[in-house]
Amino acid sequence: MRFFNLLAAFALLVGALSAQAASGRIIKLLPHYLDKEGRHTLSPSLYERDAYQAHLRSNPDEVSGIRFDFKWRASSADRDKLRMRIEIRGSKTQPGNPFVIEQAIKRKGLFGRWASVTIEKEAFDKVGKMIAWQATLLEDNVELAQQRSFLWSADSGKKDPAENSESEGN
User: Fold this and answer.
1) For the chain, what is the domain count?
2) Going by DSSP bridges, is the β-strand pair 82-90/99-104 parallel, antiparallel, or unpaired?
3) Structural domain for 141, as ranges
4) Residue 77: what pLDDT?
5) pLDDT of res. 12
6) Is residue 97 situated within a structural domain?
7) Residue 10 located in a structural domain
8) Per-residue model confidence (pLDDT) at position 70
9) Nearest residue to 91 (alpha-carbon basis) of 124, 48, 135, 69
10) What's residue 81's pLDDT?
């Protein structure tokens, strides 16, 4: 009898642990401008990378696009449904209407890995000079994690529906 009670308790514990919702984390996100050859740096030095990125920012005619490299982790997530959404506010985007790109990412191994989302020059030209960005790790349209640049504010550019209805009535 005691054995069956222990077995039932173990089954409940396993069921509770397996019903856990997926969780995720974006550990680091690095936006890198790419030159015409697809490089973000000329050598493996971090100093050289930062200097070359500053050079590309000041010479937009040499930029062929931008790549967002990110380190991520997701547990209990369906590998086939993981996506990364990148939203960019730029000098050519309208307030409250950022440029959005969403791409499937592949989970490799048991732990989070580095992955990237690349935006080619034609699409990136619609953004203009990048002002702020926001990255969201999704599993089947459910947000697992989010990371923003410090210039991204959650409410900037969005109008309050209550304000719109009040102003329309006057």
Assistant:
1) 1
2) antiparallel
3) 22-153
4) 75
5) 56
6) yes
7) no
8) 93
9) 124
10) 86
d(CA 23, CA 56): 36
Q: Is the pTM of this model over 0.70?
A: yes
Please state, in angstroms and rounded to a whole number, the distance separating the CA atoms of residues 114 and 72: 6
- Domain with 85 in it: what CATH number? 2.60.40.10
- Residue 1: per-residue pLDDT: 64
**DSSP annotation of 5:** H
Tokens of 159: 């109008």
The one-letter amino acid code at 58 reads S
Ranges in the chain, pLDDT < 50: 16-19, 157, 159-170
- Which residues contact residue 100 at a Cβ distance below 8 angstroms, ignoring those fewer than 6 apart? 85, 86, 87, 88
pLDDT at res. 116: 92
CB–CB of 137/74 below 8 Å? yes
- pLDDT at residue number 107: 59
- ∠ CA 133-127-120, nearest 5°, is 95
Contact 81, 140 (CB under 8 A): yes
Within-domain flag for 31:
yes
Quote the CA–CA distance of 51 and 46 in Å, as a whole number. 9
CA distance 139 to 137: 7
Please indicate, yes or no, if residue 6 is contained in any of the structural domains: no
